[in-house]
Design brief:
about 75% helix, globular, about 210 residues, mainly alpha
Length: about 210
């Protein structure tokens, strides 16, 4: 029988290798241009952690019980919704920077709330993770190894640090170069990515194929 540490290492490695190009990381990067990175990652991690528990315990049964179409449709709607939110809050051209070194000012904190960003991040990850390659990896591991807690711990040890680094990079990069309107372009790029994901889901049902390798 494979030991707990060995299973943790296998799960960590498998998840780490799956993260590059994973759509959840694009979602985190996009939301981090508007909200506190730690809050965005907290929301995403809660959703991912919850899904991982379900995948380990009831993954296969869950996929058979819930029609994939409805989850995909909900994900597409969320992508469009968050793209609209980014466009609605798009910084004005040549607007002065309102943050300091990537940290939200007290005015922004008071206006948006310290937990702003948690619900959008949690929601889109909760729906968007269904059927993703990271979910399939978890289910596959759970069919091979009995140590479910090791699988959960290994995957979270991979996803959380990578997500934090990703979120802080995009948050700080946007704020540091706000005087060059980079933050505005990142908002537009993030909105475009959300819409692209929504279009990809629609295409998978309309034409029977996905045009994004995600």
């Amino acid at each position: 029988m494979t030991g707990w540490v060995e299973v943790l290492t296998i799960a960590f490695t498998a998840q780490l290798l799956a993260l590059p190009g994973e759509k959840g990381q694009f979602v985190i990067a996009g939301l981090a241009t508007k909200y506190r990175p730690a809050v965005v990652v907290a929301g995403a991690a809660c959703a991912f952690g919850g899904w991982t528990v379900l995948e380990i315990a009831l993954g296969q049964a869950l996929q058979g019980a819930l029609p994939e179409f409805y989850l995909d449709a909900a994900t597409a709607v969320l992508f469009v919704l968050f793209a609209g939110m980014l466009l609605y809050s798009l910084p004005e051209k040549d607007a002065p920077a309102v943050t300091d070194g990537g940290l939200l000012s007290e005015v922004e904190v008071a206006g948006d709330g310290r937990m702003a960003g948690f619900v959008p991040s949690f929601s889109v990850m909760a729906f968007g993770e269904f059927g993703d390659k990271t979910q399939l990896i978890t289910i596959g591991l759970a069919t091979q190894y009995a140590a479910g807690s090791a699988i959960w711990a290994g995957e979270m040890l991979a996803i959380v640090p990578v997500s934090l680094a990703n979120a802080y990079f995009f948050h700080r990069f946007a704020d540091a170069l706000a005087e060059y309107d980079v933050k505005r372009y990142l908002y537009l790029a993030s909105a475009a990515i959300f819409l692209l994901f929504a279009a990809d889901i629609a295409a998978s049902y309309a034409f029977g194929t996905s045009f994004l390798p995600l």
